[in-house]
Write a structure and sequence with these properties.
Elements (H helix, E strand, L loop, with lengths): L1 H17 L7 H15 L7 E2 L5 E2 L2 E7 L10 E8 L23 E10 L6 H22 L9 E8 L5 H9 L8 E7 L3
Helix pairs in contact: 1-2
Length: 193
């Protein structure tokens, strides 16, 4: 599954470099990434049995993270999550499901997406948003890693930029200051329309 995620993101970056204007919104990017992921691994659309004998698929979008206990609510929303359906609960049983309507602990990967359009945020603000998303990924990792049955899930922040090439700023101002673990990746691509 990790290979599917890596290859799909590489493909997305290539397409963005060649045809940036097929992506007008982050939702466009997410939809296109879904299509690539499913093309690379059709199993992502195959219904699988859940922990409470329902059925679901591994790939989901806009997944809200609450953490384990109400006092530890994370209140983050991830663009794409590839989870383990066998660990997913969608029905109340011995334990109530969270208010979001489902609960799970195990996942293969989380992908966050950032798209800056030609008239988008100034460089410093966009860099700040990138840093904030990386901190969120680190926090989700920290809070969920001990309960995840998947060894070494992967975390990606995919940044697509149509305004300015800030690759050097990302390296000097973000990656050098944030200590990213070897399972958190930042992928950046610039392409002017």
């Amino acid at each position: 599954m990790k290979k599917t995620i890596r290859n799909s993101i590489a493909n997305l970056l290539k397409v963005f470099s060649e045809y940036p204007d097929i992506f007008l919104t982050e939702s466009d990017v997410r939809s296109y990434l879904f299509a690539i992921l499913i093309r690379n691994n059709p199993r992502l659309l195959r219904p699988q049995k859940t922990r409470d004998d329902s059925f679901s698929i591994p790939i989901h979008s806009e997944v809200r993270w609450y953490g384990l206990f109400n006092k530890d609510r994370l209140r983050y929303r991830s663009d794409v999550v590839i989870l383990v359906p066998e660990d997913l609960r969608v029905k109340d049983g011995l334990f109530r499901i969270p208010s979001k309507g489902f609960g799970f602990n195990s996942y293969y990967g989380i992908i966050e997406i950032k798209l800056r359009r030609i008239n988008g945020d100034p460089d410093n603000k966009f860099l700040s948003k990138i840093k904030k998303d990386l901190i969120r990924l680190k926090e989700i990792r920290k809070r969920t890693i001990t309960h995840n049955k998947i060894k070494k899930p992967i975390y990606y922040l995919v940044c697509l930029d149509k305004k300015n090439n800030i690759e050097n700023d990302i390296e000097s101002r973000i990656q050098s200051t944030l200590k990213l673990s070897d399972d958190i990746f930042l992928e950046y691509a610039f392409s002017r329309s």
